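Supplementary Methods. Inverse-folding protocol.

Structures were first reduced to a discrete structure-token string of length 139. This string, shown here, constituted the complete conditioning input.
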């Protein structure tokens, strides 16, 4: 069998970007889902905590003095925002996970494309190849 040496002069940037995007999305799916789930769990907990501040009070001489701590601290807007975010539920978790995975896929595409640009400007990989006959057993 005859061996030949080939030199890779440049990479096509389009396929590199596609491969980087797909690899980035696939690698980011599980972490994006977990981060999205943790985010929505924290939003729900924080909403419950702030909503519990609506009726805060204590007793003085047998009389209950109560006040709305949400109004006192001017947290109505924050409570409404947290309620709106928490209302998305499972759909919101999945939507945020897909968005984060897509963003990380774009980041992967950018990184792989920049590596390809750098290689095209500076590098050469020398590869040694060997011809294989069609009736030879494969490993």
């Amino acid at each position: 069998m005859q061996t030949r040496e080939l030199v890779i002069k440049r990479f096509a940037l389009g396929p590199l970007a596609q491969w980087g995007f797909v690899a980035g999305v696939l690698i980011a799916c599980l972490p994006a889902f977990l981060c999205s789930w943790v985010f929505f769990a924290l939003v729900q907990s924080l909403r419950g905590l702030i909503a519990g501040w609506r009726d805060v009070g204590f007793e003085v001489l047998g009389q209950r003095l109560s006040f709305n701590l949400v109004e006192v601290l001017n947290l109505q807007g924050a409570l409404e925002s947290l309620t709106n975010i928490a209302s998305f539920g499972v759909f919101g978790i999945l939507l945020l996970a897909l968005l984060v995975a897509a963003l990380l896929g774009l980041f992967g595409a950018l990184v792989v494309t920049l590596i390809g640009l750098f290689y095209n400007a500076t590098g050469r990989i020398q590869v040694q190849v060997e011809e294989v006959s069609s009736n030879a057993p494969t490993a």
